[in-house]
Amino acid sequence: MTHITRRLALAAAGLLAAPAVLRAQGAYPNRPIRLIVPFPGGGSTDLTARIIAERISSVLGQPVVVDNRPGAGGNIGADVVAKSEPDGHTLLMCTIGTATINQFLYSRMPFDAQKDLTAVAMVNLVTNGIVASPNVKAKNVQELIALAKERKGELTFATPGNGTSGHLTGEYFKARTGAELTHVPYRGTGSLLPDLMSNRVDLSIDNLPTYLPYLREGKVRLIAVTSKARWAPMPDVPTVIEGGIPDFESVAWFGLQAPSKTPRPIIEKLSSTIGEQMKDQALLSRLREAGTDPNFLGSADFAKFIQSEDVKWREVVRVSGAKLD
Fold first, then answer.
1. ∠ CA(130), CA(220), CA(284), 5° rounding?
2. CA distances from 162 to 46, 80, 175 (A)
3. What is the CATH number of the domain that holds 44?
4. Positive or negative: CA dihedral 64, 68, 74, 80
């Protein structure tokens, strides 16, 4: 009887606890949310994060604080989130690098990209491009390839860091064309732009939104974009495919991830909140004005998308031969 009584008592305690757990989840968020951006301020990742954070905060009723944690191609910031309490109060503004590329590029990873983080929502696509400094005379892809071969590794291409989509796009371009380019990694787009404009580096291969005002002012020049279609803000600039490199495509994307053990109700609440906001024309206009292409995917669809990107970028890393410690 005592054994049965104890079992009944435990069952009753469980039933009493269940509503408390649900209430705790239903009350989410109950304090400020930290949105980790794994790159410095001023770049496309940071800009997207701040636009989304403002909207999430207004709906959920808690501040969403953007916290820049750059380094190691985004791995430092992503690792902070992977090891955070899985309660929905620490999120990652993930990139193509942190979610897919880095696990194939780096010989050692501080976290498991496939097991330690879970998809919340994808928010936008970002076109990459090949941007030239004022002193580079090449006007198109074929002229650039010829110049790179002529100068035999003297031509430099800057990116916002190792493992970024710009880095892998550059390595893939080298592998596909035979162009001899030397990679110069920076700590974010904001730090490389002055060197590009002053001819300290020859090229940048990077997400284009941050470059838009400088392109319009003629301080740097866009040779080609790496998407399948031309970039809406500068529709006269051809694609790399149009430049004679068949099937060459590299498009970056940003989204939100959370620690893998975050309860599903919290993930779904975040995903649906972002999804509803992504229907608002004012928000879509802000993302487009920033030079990005709004593209919402909910949690399940974003997870499937990341899996498909894993297959693609594993092969790109293999073909490029790039490897980092």
1. 70
2. 17, 18, 17
3. 3.40.190.150
4. negative
